[in-house]
Design goal:
The chain has 329 residues and is of the alpha+beta class. The chain has helices spanning 11-26, 31-52, 83-86, 100-106, 177-192, 200-210, 303-314; strands at 2-7, 55-61, 69-75, 110-115, 121-127, 138-145, 155-161, 166-173, 217-225, 230-236, 240-245, 248-252, 269-272, 278-282, 321-328. The longest helix is centred in the first third of the chain and has 22 residues, at 31-52. Residues 135-328 form the PPM-type phosphatase domain. It holds the Pfam family HATPase_c_2.
Length: 329
């Protein structure tokens, strides 16, 4: 469940507030959470118009099965020079009371913000009936949009939580529209039903056999095992997957081919997976030249912010575009 609202004038603030309440209701959140959602979206939308002139609000069910409503506010404005001060009540550069960001933080169970001077601001807030679980070893975030003019997204992603590990997959069905979406959906079904003790390469072979009646897809599968500090991986096709740990970045190798049509070999891969590690996977709806050079410190932010900023800055309207991010906590 996801919707993107474009903000260009004050009329968009009321619409965004109304849509936020509607989505909170549809997610079964209580009245207090609905009110929190309305307040957060109103403050975020007002800030976008005041400081950037235009931008967008993304409303969606919380990523990774966390429960609740995620709000992401994005703009390409001048950025915030002093984030610490801006998040304090009473600070303002626009002549207001300066309560906006502090208010948003207090009415969220999770809050994060990222801004680079001259390169826009991205804000993330989660509204839920109860605080986020403190014991989870993973944070998950994603941003996925269909090709401009399409109602159906041919990309798909999924998360599977197990007792001591977590699985993530990202798919790009060949082409666009309903047939691409059907290939991705069937692949997700096979992925979710796979043997939990299998390796990603084994699951990839199962998916290849299971979606041969479709037009096929490119696919990446990652298995995160915190106890052994290992990320296992298998990829087929042009999905870009990178693991950032500290100052190092490791690109994970995908083999040529199309799952469900032509897979000559599945080569397993591994990477170190420790607290602070960040896994980023993108479909080719993002420029293949995406990188973090213009985004200092972004990997320290919540995965929903990482995904949203990369999507904002590198997604192409001519294709379905998806970013999935997992962080080890």
């Amino acid at each position: 469940m996801e919707t993107t609202l474009t903000l260009a004038d004050k009329s968009g603030v009321a619409d965004a507030r109304r849509r936020a309440v509607q989505m909170a209701q549809s997610l079964g959140l209580p009245e207090k959470s609905q009110a929190d959602a309305a307040l957060i979206v109103t403050e975020a939308a007002t800030n976008i118009l005041k400081y950037a002139g235009h931008g967008e609000i993304v409303l969606k069910s919380a990523d990774g099965g966390a429960g609740g409503l995620d709000v992401v506010a994005l703009d390409r404005g001048p950025g915030i020079a002093n984030l610490g001060a801006a998040c304090s009540d009473g600070f303002s550069t626009g002549g207001s009371l300066g309560a906006g960001l502090g208010t948003i933080a207090r009415h969220s169970v999770l809050f994060d913000i990222y801004s680079v001077t001259g390169n826009g601001t991205a804000l993330f807030a989660r509204v839920a009936d109860k605080p986020a679980a403190k014991l989870s070893r993973f944070q998950v975030g994603a941003r996925s949009t269909p090709k401009l003019g399409q109602d159906v997204n041919g990309d798909a992603w999924a998360v599977r939580h197990l007792a001591d590990s977590m699985w993530v997959t990202l798919l790009d069905g060949l082409g666009h529209g309903p047939l691409a979406a059907e290939a991705s959906r069937r692949a997700v079904d096979v992925f979710m039903a796979a043997d939990p003790v299998a390796l990603p390469a084994d699951v990839m072979r199962d998916v290849h056999s299971g979606i041969k009646a479709t037009r096929g897809a490119v696919m990446a599968i990652a298995k995160f095992e915190p106890v052994s500090a290992v990320l296992s991986f298998a990829g087929i096709g042009n999905i870009v997957s990178v693991v950032h740990t500290g100052e190092s970045a490791q690109h994970l190798l995908s083999m040529d081919g199309t799952v469900g049509y032509n897979v000559r070999a599945v080569r397993p891969g591994e990477a170190r997976w420790v607290p602070g590690s960040v896994f980023i996977a993108t479909t080719d709806g993002l420029s293949t030249r995406w990188n973090l050079n213009r985004h200092p410190g972004l990997t320290h932010r919540h995965p929903s912010l990482i995904a949203s900023v990369l999507h904002r800055d590198f997604a192409r309207d001519a294709d379905d575009a998806t970013v999935v991010v997992v962080k080890a906590v």
